[in-house]
Specification:
The protein is an all-alpha fold and 97 residues long. It is 54% helix and 0% strand. The protein contains four helices and no strands. The chain has helices at 7-17, 21-29, 35-53, 61-73. Helix 1 crosses helix 3 (35-53) and helix 3 (35-53) packs antiparallel against helix 4. It is globular and about 40 Å long.
């Protein structure tokens, strides 16, 4: 069973993905969620929904996972920037592969 096929994982991912950027940033700063938790929620949602909408053309999960892990390992409370750990997607406007 893949993470996205587990209904409880889907619900947890949807809960995280429905949070505002402010709430996510606060949850990361307060260590209620790790950067990796947030990234996994968004990757699971992309995995479930993107085949139908093709919104994410170039997905780099390995790079994102490495960055999230590094951010969690280097986390020091009070020193993070306002958007620390929030996932972003950049629109592909030119050929990327």
């Amino acid at each position: 069973m893949t993470p996205h096929s587990d209904p409880s994982c889907s619900r947890a991912s949807d809960t995280v993905c429905a949070m505002s950027a402010t709430a996510l940033a606060r949850a990361i700063a307060d260590r209620e969620l790790s950067v990796l938790d947030v990234l996994m929620a968004f990757l699971n949602r992309i995995d479930r929904i993107n085949p139908a909408v093709n919104a994410i053309v170039t997905l780099c999960p390995e790079e994102a996972l490495a960055q999230a892990t590094a951010m969690d390992q280097s986390f020091t409370a009070g020193t993070e920037k306002p958007l620390y750990g929030l996932p972003i997607a950049i629109k592909d406007l030119v050929l990327t592969r």
